[in-house]
Write a structure and sequence with these properties.
The complex is a heterodimer of chains A (about 500) and B (about 325).
Chain A (H helix, E strand, L loop, with lengths): L1 H16 L12 H34 E2 L3 H7 L8 H14 L9 H26 L2 H9 L4 H30 L2 H5 L5 H11 L3 H29 L14 E2 L2 H33 L2 H35 L1 H16 L2 H17 L8 H30 L2 H9 L4 H30 L2 H6 L7 H10 L3 H32 L2
Parallel strand pairs in A: 1-2
Helix pairs in contact in A: 1-10, 1-13, 1-14, 1-15, 2-3, 2-5, 2-7, 2-9, 2-10, 4-5, 4-11, 4-20, 5-7, 6-7, 7-10, 9-10, 10-14, 11-20, 12-13, 12-15, 12-17, 12-19, 13-15, 14-15, 15-17, 16-17, 17-20, 19-20
Chain B lengths: L3 E10 L2 E11 L4 E5 L6 H9 L6 E6 L2 E4 L7 H4 L1 E4 L11 H6 L7 H14 L15 H13 L5 E5 L7 H17 L4 E5 L2 H7 L2 E6 L2 E6 L1 H6 L4 H6 L3 E9 L2 E4 L2 E4 L7 E7 L3 E17 L2 E8 L2 E7 L8 E6 L4 E5 L1
Parallel strand pairs in B: 3-8, 3-9, 6-7, 7-8
Antiparallel strand pairs in B: 1-2, 1-4, 4-5, 9-10, 11-12, 11-14, 12-13, 14-19, 15-16, 15-18, 16-17
Helix pairs in contact in B: 4-5
Classes of the chains: A mainly alpha (about 500), B alpha+beta (about 325).
Amino acid sequence: MATLICAAPAVAVITLALRPDQGDVAFGGDLLRDGAIGTALVVALGGAGAVVFGAMAAWLVSLCRFPGRGVFEWLLVIPLAAPSYVLAYAYTGITWHGAAPIEVRGLWGAAFVYAIGLYPYVYLAARAAFASQSACALEAARSLGASPWRVFWEVALPLARPGIAAGAALAMMEIAADYGAAYHFGLTTLSTAVFRAWYAHGSLDGALQIAAVLLLAAIVFLIVERRARGRAAFGGGSSRWRPLPRYQLSPLPGLLASGFCVALIAFGAVLPLAWLGRLALLHGDLGDVVQPFVNSVILSAAGALITLALAAAIAVSARRSKSIGKLSLYGAAMGYAAPGAVIAMGALALFSIAREAGWIGGLGTALALAALFWTYAARFSAAGVQPIDAGLARLSKGLDASARTLGAGPWRRLIAVDLPIAGPSLAAAALILFVEILKELPATLILRPFDFDTLAVKAYSYASDERLLQAAAPALLIFLAGLAPIIILTRGIARARAGQA
Amino acid sequence: MSSVTLRNVRRAYNGAWALDDVSLTAPEGKVLALLGPSGSGKSTILRLIAGLESPDSGEILIGNETVSTPGRAMPTEQRRVGMVFQDYSLFPHLTAGANVAFGLDKLARADRDEQALRWLDRMGLKHRAGAYPHELSGGEQQRVALARALAPKPRAVLLDEPFSGLDPVLRAELRDATLATLAETQTTTLFVTHDAEDALQAADQLAILKAGKLLQSATPREAYDAPASLDAAAALGPINVFEGVSEGGVVRTPFGEIASSLPNGSRAYAAVRAEAVHLKPGSAARVVDVRPHGAHDLVRLEAQGVVWRALAPARTALGERVDVALHAAGSFVFSA
């Protein structure tokens, strides 16, 4: 059931796009071709940048010792807080009003913004891969007389390669899915092409066809990610966790390492944040963002609760039954891989079929909201499954058995054992979902009820009118909201590593 | 306190018998050890008694009350059976005191806290009542788990490999302390172990299991002195086995004769415990290997191409020639 909810829009896109009886508006058309080329270019460039930034940062932080390493270790994740479109607005503003007379719009600017905003995906995966490497393998290499350089190239990096690949696939998936930044930078990608087909050409079929191609690309990235992650767990060696032996960098390289990390954090977070903050304080009109803020909070909270329920159902069923669980996890993963624009088109198409069949009336506010929540649930339930599953994993069978032998009935077990133990994970999942939905742009843009502006929509519409001053305040709020789950997640990682018995 | 009885219990996993027609009784107020290698079904017995699983056939009684039959099982939480899990399964979000108090929820709060504290005190852990499980050492966790299981005054308590996670010194100490507590409280106890020494030293009654079958149920003394089968003999320590023929009331081995009650000419296994092989100066066998084994040496002897192990108190030299005496109390003959 949950699977159906998650996968239906994505499946609808593919089946509808492959209907034989429709005119081929987009297939073979310029829009699809240009979009595919644009997406391929920007994914390749942005992805490569993210890999270089992320893998280097992970290696420095995991295997070297230099000034500030401990702080950088978690600060390096911060750029993940800002959605690409917020960074895009900030950088347009910085280069426009600021000192640097650079044209940031265009392919290279977009690649830079994606790389600096999404490298944390690679960084996290690579760091986990470095950290999970048995210190023994590295020590063995050193005991065999390998230089630090050789240890890195011949042991650490090959062992971490699957992890890096998984992170890169995630980053590329995000780049392919992004609409806001690509649109703002004037790129033609598959994501922007979906919108153009739908809004400019008024062609639902064309939009569906482009969306189907985009979806297939996303699924390819997803498969790469899953494969790579499956291989990331190189077994063997010692299972005991020990702190990795780190190389002490001498002063100059150490300073360079610190400088590199500082630059990543500065360009990925501090600079855009400061710029947006300054603009918002100087020129922001608070009254202007109150209503979008309230709308965002309501929409995100309701969406998060619905999605959380769905994610919990998936997580629980995955633990109950292997086969059903696998299916629903795939369904959720497919929704997660699918860009917001694709899912929204799928939901829209399904609703329009229902309307033609006379099952429902026009797309009024209530129905639009339903479609929107459905899209959120389909898109984000996978993001909630993971933390919920982590919470459930802490509820070992032994604890349940313990409580039972001590005379606790089902209710008492739920209240006194299950909830206190899994509760924090549920709360974390809810927060993550809340912020993801708050940041979501394309689906909200397509499906929101008439005149219902959220922060993301507001920032987008100001930015597309070249009114960056006004866009700063909503963009800043989105950025700040994005920081909350990042902080919680990084604390969780630190705790998981330290507290593992 | 109540006795615990299994009658003809069977339990299958994926088509294989985890327990095959097992009947045994844990006497009221005594300690029964379930001894066997992993996969012998000993932990399954505990889970069946606790009601965490149901038997495929047979029945389980606590006292005179039938708690499990194939169709009907009393829920775990109503059985009043305490359990100490192999990983202790302390609630990670509760302090040691709150863990112990968990099963006392029928009492008023003040009583509950007071009793929990009394139990911790009894385990020498009163000062750790406010500590969380991850702040406790392995031995402390084990004691909290035992206190938690005993506090609600269960009809019987089940211990699953309770000492397996601990280092050897702590292990012996903790085993004795645990037994003292169990004896003091007159608790019917079933404990699972794969360690023969634990079983022999700790139990009033022994049940030896292998591959889902009950090999022997006896006191430790009886089981050691009169094993029911070759496997039962092997379960309690290293043995030497020789396949021969029973003739004239004995089975002849390269190391000596062993009295046999089997009919003349029947094939037989002679089994001799390593500690029943005694050495004295002579010429019948040659020492081919000597390893220190605590106060004893573990000696390998060769005679007529057959190698046996002996636990010998005296220092023996490699290559030395010796005569062998087989102590009757540790020598058995089983029909092959």
